[in-house]
Specification:
single chain; about 300 residues; mainly beta; Lipocalin; 10-stranded antiparallel β-barrel; 2 helices; about 10% helix; elongated
Length: about 300
């Protein structure tokens, strides 16, 4: 069995789409797509699409210990919709795009502020010393609050289009801003190695922030189904810069009638970071419902 790394999976999927779309174009399926994707549409066409995304969040964090101690605090975070919905302070999610003939620009914005589910401090890693493992049994209480902004902005160009749908390439950037704070209550206290009497443990809190910018490239579009109004939207991107790498994939099924439509999707977004970052890994994936308005 061949196991592909996430980057290779994305490349394989893009290659598959490129090879498949000309065959779909030859089939010339009936129309019924969103107006923003209509082949040969003249003038500007705009889409505004608020949505609700209910992902499961998995994160590997590495907080910096206070300078008096020196070191890192690896912490795992896992949270599903049932964990964070009731603890959400504020959230907004929407996408928008504008299209003129084959050219387009798209934006996607997410802001979330609230407490999340279970978190676990894996170890205390003082610089130059072996890790000190932390057993979950001595974490009497651990809670994490997360404030996250994710913004994507990209320009696109339609390479293929017809009654079958469309295939666009895109390039732009994605921004991830994270502020995370973990409060803990540990049934132990560890004296730091610097001989200054500094300790870690007991009851306290630790926080970290990170702003990450990435360039991205990708593809997006839709494939119309034989039933009028039904279509399969798809979106794939991959990038790097602040991340190593970041990638995203989304697809599902949609229905469009006139100026309004609705889509049910599965979406997954991933960030990977190198050493020294508070966010080592962030994976966010789950179902999404989007309503779009075209004018």
């Amino acid at each position: 069995m061949i196991i592909l790394r996430p980057t290779l999976k994305i490349v394989a999927l893009v290659t598959w789409l490129v090879s498949f779309l000309p065959l779909v174009a030859a089939a010339q399926q009936p129309s019924g797509q969103p107006l923003s994707q209509a082949p040969g549409a003249s003038g500007w066409v705009f889409n505004v699409a608020p949505y609700i995304w209910l992902p499961t969040v998995h994160a590997n964090l590495e907080y910096n210990l206070p300078p008096a101690l020196g070191g890192r605090l690896p912490t795992d975070l896992s949270s599903g919709p049932g964990d964070y919905i009731s603890k959400l302070n504020f959230g907004t999610m929407f996408a928008a795009d504008a299209r003129y003939d084959r050219f387009s620009v798209l934006s996607d914005f997410i802001y979330i502020n609230g407490s999340v589910g279970s978190s676990n401090i894996r170890s205390i890693d003082f610089f130059g010393l072996p890790s000190i493992p932390i057993s979950p049994s001595i974490e009497t209480s651990t809670s994490t609050r997360l404030t996250t902004t994710i913004w994507t902005l990209a320009g696109g160009y339609t390479i293929f289009r017809g009654n079958w749908g469309n295939f666009d390439v895109l390039a732009g950037f994605r921004y991830l801003g994270v502020h995370v704070n973990t409060n803990y209550s540990l049934a132990l206290t560890v004296v730091g190695p610097r001989g200054n009497g500094a300790t870690f443990g007991g009851v306290g809190g630790i926080s970290g922030s990170r702003a990450i910018w990435n360039g991205i490239v990708g593809v997006r579009g839709l494939i119309r189904l034989p039933v009028k109004g039904l279509f399969v939207p798809y979106y794939v991107d991959i990038g790097g810069g602040g991340s190593d790498p970041t990638w995203q994939i989304a697809s599902g099924i949609g229905y469009q009638t006139g100026w309004a439509g609705v889509s049910l999707l599965y979406r997954y977004l991933s960030f990977e970071q190198g050493g020294g970052s508070v966010v080592k890994h962030l994976g966010v994936g789950g179902p999404m419902i989007m309503v779009n308005f075209t004018f």
